[in-house]
Amino acid sequence: MKQGTDITQTQNLQQVQTLSPQQVLAVKLLELPAMEFEERVKTELQDNPALEPSADHESEYMENDVQETETSGEYEDNYSDNNDEDLSLGDYRTEDDIPDYKLKENNGSQTVRAEDIPFSDSVSFYENLMEQLGETDTDETTKRIAEYIIGSIDDDGLLRKNLETLKDELELYAGISASDEEMKNALSIVQSMDPAGIGARSLQECLLLQIDRNEESKLQKVKHNIIEQCYDAFVKKRRDKIMQKLHITEEVCDKALSEIVRLNPRPGISLGEAIGRNTQIIIPDFTVDTHENGTIDISLNNYNVPDLKINKTFSDIINDAARKKGKQTKSEKDAALFAKQKIESAQNFIDAIKQRQNTLFITMKTIVELQRPFFLEGDESLLKPMILKDVADRAKLDISTISRVSNSKYVQTNYGVFPLKFFFSDSYTTDSGDKLSVREMKHILKEMIDSENPDTPYTDDELTEMLNEKGFPIARRTVAKYRQQLNIPVARLRK
User: What does the pLDDT read at residue 84?
Assistant: First the structure.
């Protein structure tokens, strides 16, 4: 007689963090730069009949800047009450729906619209990767994961976030609960794109991806083994150790190494050069004006984006339904239900825009406060070490929120247009206890290389030793990384 299988039932308590549709919408709007945000608003106006521009924007889109002024380090509202203005309140469902400019008037000062500024932007390879992704035959979920991975790739083409972090962000911001296998599959799709090496998580992986893309040959296997098994010896230029471990001749080793050093450690930069870094029209998301008296004006640029309100016809349908209550016909009930759904969607969109504007302004205001010397003088050396956590703590926002704002936004200043990422840098603590920004460290490194003897340029080891003697505790691999970021070749190529 067969013994039956025991069936047991257990109850587990698990806490899962999920985002509401309203939160997801707010996050998506926050990520959009000015021009894409404008397109998103236009699309919503077309899709939702319960949403419409306010009376002042019905004929054409006009700018409505949110502006505050800093005086003696303090930020104050730049509006005054105006009770004589015709508010046309009948066009709005509640007082909360009335745009700020209807309730307050700027102190007679005209806000200047940020102009369309031709600005060279190195995002072209992202568009190229998205086009390649569109040509792949993959399911929708994998494609969305791959899109997020592409958006997380740095300008040099490397992916510096681990898959576990990306998986958490996907669940939090995109509502996608991906398995480890799905993450690896999506990454492999990205890494299969051109140019070879794109999406690599390290320089070692970047080189391996490029080597493995070549036609299989004996030398290709040697190159693969050098990077996979002897990477440390390769970095330290220890040919003897490579030959000993792989049992290859000096001739084969030299030939393989000569081909490896021709590979591109920054495939994103290479792609930008290959397809041309087209000058694109960048609409700054912020304008920061510095005046001679030391005051700083911060404006959030709502470029060509109208103030939105609820369509009065839809509001009337809801009001009529409330008056009739149970005396409606079926068609009236259906109309009221449709109107209610569209109004709720429209109101959620309006609220998400308000949240976006508030978050953007708080972030920019905090950056200006922390980097005030730069905004007053325009001297890059005055930029202090600043990381995402510094801004998040002061603005009382989440680090991921600051990251999303800084990754895609630009600011127009008296000294030019800058991506927000420009104002962030890590710091080093010198032997004397002073904090030095990475930007300052790069400047010092460049000065040392500029002053070297062209016949005997400094190696990375020598530069590291010199910096350590000056009181800057920095590793050789960090010196090499900064040298590459400054587009300065190795010593043997500087002769």
Answer: 36
Q: How far is CA 346 from CA 59, 148, 340, in A?
A: 20, 27, 10
d(CA 160, CA 137): 26
Q: Where are the alpha helices (DSSP H) in 239-329?
A: 239-246, 250-260, 267-275, 312-324
Distance from C-alpha of 182 to C-alpha of 143, rounded to nearest angstrom? 10
Cα–Cα distances in angstroms (integers) from residue 263 to residues 113, 210, 241, 426, in the given order: 45, 7, 22, 29
Residue with tokens 């030299």: 254
Torsion sign, CA atoms 123, 125, 129, 134: positive
Closest by Cα among 173, 145, 172 to 159: 145
* Phi, psi torsion values for 305, nearest 5 degrees: -105, 120
Model confidence at 7, pLDDT cuts 50, 70, 90, reads: low
Q: Is the peptide bond before 195 cis (omega within 30 degrees of 0)?
A: yes
pLDDT digits (tens, 9 = 90+) for 76-120: 333 333 333 333 333 434 434 444 433 333 333 344 444 444 444
Other residues' Cβ atoms within 10 Å of the Cβ of residue 231: 16
Reported as type and span, the H/E element at residue 482 is helix 476-485
For the whole model, what pTM was predicted? 0.50
Q: What is the pLDDT of the chain when averaged over all its residues?
A: 76
Contacts of residue 169, defined as CB under 8 A and 6 or more positions apart, other chains included, come to 148, 400
User: How many Å apart are CA 458 and CA 151, to the nearest integer?
Assistant: 37
State mean pLDDT over 436-465: 82
Helix (H, G, I), strand (E, B) or coil at 315: helix
What does the block give as tokens for 182?
Answer: 């799905």
Closest by alpha carbon to 310, among 43, 48, 51? Answer: 51
Which of 39-43, 245-249, 271-275 shows the lowest per-residue confidence on average (mean pLDDT)?
271-275
pLDDT confidence bin for 203, thresholds 50/70/90: confident
| Residue type for position 66 | V
Residue from 54, 41, 50 nearest 341 by CA:
50
Q: What is the DSSP secondary structure assignment for residue 264, as one 8-state letter?
A: -
User: Strand, helix or coil at 186?
Assistant: helix
Contacts of 12 (CB under 8 A, 6+ apart): none
In this structure, are residues 224 and 234 in contact, taking their beta carbons and an 8 Å threshold? no
Given pLDDT bands bounded at 50, 70 and 90, which one contains residue 58?
Answer: very low
Structure tokens at 419: 């991506």
Provide the 10 A C-beta neighbour count for residue 297. Answer: 20
First to last CA, the chain: 87
